[in-house]
Amino acid sequence: MIEQLEKLVHTFGPTGQEQAVAELIRTEIAPFVDEIRQDPLGNLIAVKKGKPGGKKIMLAAHMDEIGLVVSHIDENGFCRVRPVGYVLTATLVGSRVRFANGTIGVFGAEDEDKALWKPTGKLPAWDKWYLDVGAENKAAAPVQVGDMAAFYPFFHQQGNRLIAQSMDDRSGCAVLLAVAKQLSAPANDVYFVFTVQEEIGTKGAVAATYDVHPDMGIAVDVTFSADTPKAAPMAVVLGQGAAIKVMDGGMIAHYGLRQALVETAEAAGIPYQMEVLPGGTTDARSIQLSREGVPAGAISIPSRYMHSKAEMVDLRDMIACANLLTRFVTESA
Amino acid sequence: MNNPLNRQIALYPLLKTLSDLPGVSGAEGPVRDLIAQEVHRYADKMWVDALGNLIVLKKGDSSSTKRVAVMAHMDEVGLVVSGADDKGFLKIKSAGGIIPNILVAQRMKVGPDGIPGIIGYKPVHLQSQEERNKSAKMDEIFVDIGAKTEEEALNKAPLGTAVSFDREMKFAGEPPAVVPEDGGLPETGRLTGKAFDDRVGCLAIIALLRGERLPYDLYAVFTVQEEVGLRGAPTAAWAIQPDMALILESTVADDLPREEDLSPTTRLGEGPAITVSDRASIADPRLLRYFLAKAEETQIPLQIKQPGVGGTDGRAVQLTRAGVPVAILAVPSRYIHSPVSLIDLRDVHNLLRLLEAALPDMPAALQMKR
């Protein structure tokens, strides 16, 4: 799982340009599924057939990561950018981004009064930041208005902790790949759906869920944890197991589905914790509201420093998520 | 070569009629009626759906099985009557993105019969120094239709009556030297009017419906209620189930005097603008590349709209059923969402030229690498 996660993290895939991630996943998952297709929006849908009479279960993880789009290049070659997805300005100082063509950009800010150098200085607003792509003038800029960038990839394992810029949600993609690998003769048809454009409003899942028309759906995404100094209170801890979602800012998980996940975890002795996330949401929100409604829930990977360049998750939690999902879809639902 | 778009028709008077007609969100009837009258002879099928969208099918020459939707919205921003006071002044709410500063001192048309109304304001003589320096507020705006009592006002304009700008399309500055006598659209010149957003999109689709058949089934969709939150487009797209969609819009041109080296959203006269991403959606990368390549190949000016501004029906269409690849092209307009929007005719012509060049092979774009 770690090897695959590292590959996933290193693959370029800001919201709207997920194709390289889709191609990697297609290659990795192909030996373990019966069919693979890509839908009109770019969602990758891989199907593992179950036994007759089984249900259709959709598992979703999103391929996209937060990024940027170039909106203007000035005469001196500096690029202005707009965030794609929720990018924190606090994480921009000193960060690097990468474009599809390999160009690297580093962030700078208009900082006339040296606010960035003061311990209590206010962060500049979005329009004060620029990307330096090393160009001496506009004509020499190696990128164009409309080009998208993602934060520079970084992966490191330290004991059980894993650190990368895009654990949200490449760790979820890795969990789904692990489930596909582990699965033999499931009772249910399992639809592994790798979605696009989650970070700008769980969009890909809207289209994919309509297409799949599942009996139930489970999103696999990261969640916050509250096990760091003076963190906002929340009962999720890194390393304590798969987080079974109760609710978040966008949805309440289907009660029966949530309980079934708890029972599966209990029966198999898989570590789990209950997740009540005050804000934010996942693809499960879009799954839930598809067509006539779909029982939907989510299994989350606890993470620290979400949407920063160093998101941290715990390998044991990812394994717990994969085992829980594998067991759940294997048994009759 | 068969031209999929007919530019020989009297587009100039048609654009004027389209722009001048009232069609505030939710009250698009007059615009819909005009368009239906202009295109019904060229339609293989035409219907109005439950929300009021006008949908026109023009069958392809049967060489392609694809279904392509080309969409523009009929509605414009305006006001809606929300009450009257005891002196007969109409209270209003906004329909779509509209700011009070552009409403003050306007002539308006109230309701389907176009009752003349005006939006007055306290004369300068009576304003304190402080009042003179502040902006108008929405709750200070009233429409005066000459009524003397609440009853009279609400009889003439019941709650919910739409109120639109009363403004005729005109050339800004000198009219161009060459104005075709047959009503053709002059090649140059800048027009000012109240509703180029999005009647200029409607105009392009009318020209398309009156051209030669395309290889694929063309679904022309004139939507309602775009300005109040992309409310019309979803049902139309649901019914049509297109393989791809092209949204024709008018968008912000803010190429106004400025000191800093910062890009405007779009610039007037530099061609139609194509969207990479806006506040509501990210365009399909294949269609985006296809239009950029076509423009390059044909030397038709096409500008990239600065990312992050605005939103269109594209968002609603994109998320229909199993998903629809979408591209968005727009005619830049200064002073958009006001009675004095300003467009450049070269941009309209270049949009039409680009459609002529790019539409026949558009489905091939989806064969490209994503």
Outline the structure in words:
The complex is a heterodimer of chains A (333) and B (370). Helices cover 24% and strands 29% of the residues of chain A. Chain A has 7 helices and 17 strands. Chain A has helices at residues 2-10, 19-29, 167-182, 204-212, 255-268, 283-288, 315-330; strands at 35-38, 44-48, 56-62, 67-73, 78-84, 96-99, 104-109, 129-132, 148-151, 155-158, 161-164, 189-195, 216-224, 242-247, 272-276, 296-303, 311-314. The longest helix of chain A has 16 residues, at 167-182. The mean pLDDT of chain A is 95. Chain B is α+β, with helices and mostly antiparallel strands and 370 residues long. Helix content of chain B is 24%, strand content 22%. Chain B has helices at 11-20, 29-39, 129-132, 150-156, 196-209, 233-240, 285-298, 314-318, 345-358, and strands spanning 45-48, 54-58, 67-73, 78-84, 90-95, 107-110, 115-118, 142-143, 162-165, 170-171, 190-193, 217-223, 244-252, 273-274, 303-304, 326-333, 341-344. In chain B, strands 1-2-12-3-13-16-14-15 form an 8-stranded mixed β-sheet, sandwiched between helices. A 6-stranded antiparallel β-sheet of chain B has the order 7-6-9-4-5-8. A 3-stranded antiparallel β-sheet of chain B has the order 10-11-17.
